C-alpha cells in the first residue's frame, strides 16, 4: 500500500513499524481484585490488599475483564484460545508491590487477527491494507511513581496497580507514520464500538509502545528501538518521524543502532534513551502458581459473539448501501457516538443522503464552533429529523433552514415551533412573488436593459434581489420560474 521512503544522505531507506497498544479494560473492578478503577481518584484510595501485595493475598480473575478481551479479539476476527494461562513477569520496581507483574507470555487469551486500514479518508474503499495482530493478552498494570511532589522524595500511587490491560501486539506491518496513525485510529474506534476500552488516551487508558527500525530497500530487518507509553495518535506519528531520522543519521555516519527502550518528549518532539532493551528471558517468566489456566466453554464464547455490536466497517458499508458517499460514511462511522446519533436520526425515516450531508456539514460544523461533542448536542436526532422534513416538504428553503437551525441551537426549541414563532415559513405564493419581481425590475432598469441585450449572467442578480426583498422566504424554484417569464 505504501511506497514510503526516507531519503538519507547516502540513499533511500525503508521504515518498519510495529505497535504494542495497552488498552485499559472497561470494567468496574481490577483484573484480580474488586478495587475500583475510576480515573482521578485521590492517590492510594483504590487499592485492595491484593493490589498492595499483602502476605497471603490470592488473585481471583475478574471474568468481565476476560469477557471484554475475548469480545475485542472477535471484533478483529482473531483466534480465541480456549485454553490460556497466566505467567509471572519478574522485575523489581517501587510501583510494583508484588515484585512481579501477572501477564500472559506463553499462552495468550487471543491469537492472530488483523485490522484493515485506509489512508485516504475521501476514498476509504480505495487503498486498503491489512495490518496483522499477533496476539492480545491480558495483564495487570503497575502503579505510578511521582517525582514532582517533594524536593527530595518520590511518592508512589498504587491506584493503577492491578488495573486490567489488554496488550494488543501488531505485526511489524506498518511502513510509514501515516499507516501507524491510521492503524491506531482504527483500533481505537473498534475498542470504543465494542465497549471494551474507552480509548481516552489523555487519561492513559490507551497508550502505545512504538517499535521502529530502518533498512535499505530489500535488506533484512534492522535493529529496532521501542519508544514507551506514547499517549496520542499525533505523538505516535511524531515519535516515529523523529526516530526514523535519528536512526538513519546514526547508520549513515557508520554507527550501529542499539536495541533499547526510549521515551518521547512531546514538548521537544524528540526521543531519548531510557534503558537498554530487555528480552523475555531477563524477566524470568514462569507460570503463576496462584492461578489456574483459563478454560472457555462454547456457551461463554457464543454469548461474547452475540453481544458484539455492528462494527465500523460493517456500518460504513451499510451507509454506503443507502446511497451515502464513501467519504460521508467514513466520517459518520469514525466515532461511535456520531454513528449512534446518526442511526437514531435514520430511525425517524429521515432521507439518508440528505441527513448524512446535513450532519457532516451543518451539525458537525456547529458543534465544532461551539466546542461541544455530539453527546452534548443541543439538537436531538428527533429535532434534526423535524428540520429535515420541513426542508423536504418545501416549508423551508436551504437558507431558511440554516436560520432555523441557529435558533434551535440557541433555544433548544424544535424546528416547527421556531418556524411558527418567527414566521420563517417559505412562501410559494406566485402572486406575492410576481409583485416583488415586478418591483425589483422597476428599480433596476439598467440591469434589465443589459439582460435584454444578452448579458444573461445578470439573471442571478435578479434572483438574489428578489430573495433579498422577500427576506429569504420565497421558494427559490418558484422565483426562478417566474423570473424567466418576467424577463422573457
UniProtKB/TrEMBL annotation:
It is an enzyme of class 6 (ligase). The keyword Glycoprotein does not apply. SUPFAM superfamilies: GatB/YqeY motif, Glutamine synthetase/guanido kinase. Its EC number is 6.3.5.-. It catalyses: L-aspartyl-tRNA(Asn) + L-glutamine + ATP + H2O = L-asparaginyl-tRNA(Asn) + L-glutamate + ADP + phosphate + 2 H(+); L-glutamyl-tRNA(Gln) + L-glutamine + ATP + H2O = L-glutaminyl-tRNA(Gln) + L-glutamate + ADP + phosphate + H(+). One of its GO terms (molecular function) is transferase activity. Keywords: ATP-binding, Ligase, Nucleotide-binding, Protein biosynthesis, Transferase. GO terms for biological process: glutaminyl-tRNAGln biosynthesis via transamidation; translation. Residues 340-487 form the Asn/Gln amidotransferase domain. InterPro entries: Asn/Gln-tRNA_amidoTrfase_suB/E, Asn/Gln-tRNA_Trfase_suB/E_cat, Asn/Gln_amidotransferase, Asn/Gln_tRNA_amidoTrase-B-like, GatB, GatB_C_1, GatB_Yqey_C_2, Gln-tRNA_amidoTrfase_suB_CS. Heterotrimer of A, B and C subunits. Belongs to the GatB/GatE family. GatB subfamily. Allows the formation of correctly charged Asn-tRNA(Asn) or Gln-tRNA(Gln) through the transamidation of misacylated Asp-tRNA(Asn) or Glu-tRNA(Gln) in organisms which lack either or both of asparaginyl-tRNA or glutaminyl-tRNA synthetases. The reaction takes place in the presence of glutamine and ATP through an activated phospho-Asp-tRNA(Asn) or phospho-Glu-tRNA(Gln). This is Aspartyl/glutamyl-tRNA(Asn/Gln) amidotransferase subunit B. It comes from Sphingomonas abaci.
Amino acid at each position: 500500500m505504501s511506497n514510503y521512503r526516507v531519503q538519507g544522505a547516502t540513499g533511500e531507506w525503508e521504515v518498519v513499524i510495529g505497535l504494542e497498544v495497552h488498552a485499559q479494560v472497561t470494567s468496574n473492578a481490577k483484573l484480580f481484585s474488586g478495587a475500583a478503577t475510576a480515573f482521578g481518584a485521590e492517590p492510594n484510595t483504590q487499592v485492595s490488599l491484593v493490589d498492595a501485595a499483602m502476605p497471603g493475598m490470592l488473585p481471583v480473575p475478574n471474568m468481565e475483564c476476560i469477557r471484554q478481551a475475548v469480545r475485542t479479539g472477535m471484533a478483529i476476527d482473531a483466534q480465541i484460545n480456549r485454553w490460556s494461562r497466566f505467567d509471572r513477569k519478574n522485575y523489581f520496581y517501587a510501583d510494583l508491590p508484588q515484585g512481579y507483574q501477572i501477564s500472559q507470555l506463553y499462552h495468550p487469551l487471543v491469537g492472530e487477527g488483523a485490522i484493515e486500514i485506509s489512508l485516504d479518508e475521501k476514498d476509504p474503499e480505495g487503498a486498503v491494507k491489512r495490518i496483522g495482530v499477533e496476539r492480545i493478552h491480558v495483564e495487570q498494570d503497575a502503579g505510578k511513581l511521582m517525582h514532582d511532589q517533594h524536593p527530595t522524595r518520590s511518592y508512589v500511587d498504587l491506584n493503577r496497580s492491578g488495573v486490567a490491560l489488554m496488550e494488543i501486539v501488531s505485526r511489524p506491518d506498518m511502513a510509514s507514520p501515516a499507516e501507524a496513525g491510521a492503524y491506531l485510529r482504527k483500533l481505537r474506534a473498534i475498542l470504543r464500538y465494542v465497549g471494551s476500552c474507552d480509548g481516552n488516551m489523555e487519561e492513559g487508558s490507551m497508550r502505545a509502545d512504538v517499535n521502529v527500525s530502518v533498512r535499505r530497500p530489500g535488506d533484512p530487518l534492522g535493529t529496532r528501538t521501542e519508544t514507551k507509553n506514547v499517549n496520542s495518535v499525533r505523538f505516535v506519528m511524531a515519535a516515529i518521524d523523529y526516530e526514523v531520522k535519528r536512526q538513519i543519521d546514526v547508520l549513515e555516519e557508520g554507527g550501529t543502532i542499539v536495541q533499547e527502550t526510549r521515551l518521547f518528549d512531546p514538548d521537544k518532539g524528540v526521543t531519548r534513551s531510557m534503558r537498554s532493551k530487555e528480552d523475555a528471558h531477563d524477566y524470568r517468566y514462569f507460570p503463576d502458581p496462584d492461578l489456574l489456566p483459563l478454560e472457555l466453554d462454547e456457551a461463554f464464547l457464543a454469548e461474547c459473539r452475540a453481544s458484539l455490536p455492528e462494527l465500523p466497517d460493517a456500518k460504513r458499508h451499510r451507509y454506503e448501501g443507502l446511497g451515502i458517499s464513501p467519504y460521508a460514511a467514513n466520517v459518520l462511522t469514525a466515532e461511535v457516538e456520531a454513528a449512534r446519533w446518526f442511526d437514531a436520526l435514520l430511525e425517524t425515516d429521515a432521507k439518508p443522503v440528505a441527513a448524512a450531508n446535513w450532519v457532516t456539514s451543518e451539525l458537525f460544523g456547529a458543534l465544532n464552533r461551539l466546542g461541544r461533542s455530539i453527546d452534548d448536542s443541543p439538537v436531538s436526532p428527533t429535532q434534526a429529523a423535524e428540520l429535515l422534513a420541513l426542508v423536504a416538504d418545501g416549508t423551508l428553503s436551504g437558507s431558511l433552514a440554516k436560520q432555523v437551525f441557529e435558533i434551535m441551537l440557541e433555544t433548544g426549541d424544535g424546528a416547527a415551533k421556531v418556524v411558527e414563532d418567527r414566521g420563517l415559513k417559505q412562501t410559494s405564493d406566485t402572486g406575492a412573488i410576481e409583485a416583488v419581481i415586478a418591483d425589483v425590475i422597476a428599480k433596476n432598469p439598467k440591469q434589465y436593459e443589459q439582460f435584454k441585450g444578452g448579458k444573461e449572467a445578470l439573471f442571478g442578480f435578479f434572483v438574489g434581489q428578489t430573495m433579498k426583498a422577500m427576506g429569504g422566504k420565497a421558494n427559490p424554484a418558484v422565483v426562478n420560474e417566474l423570473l424567466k417569464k418576467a424577463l422573457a
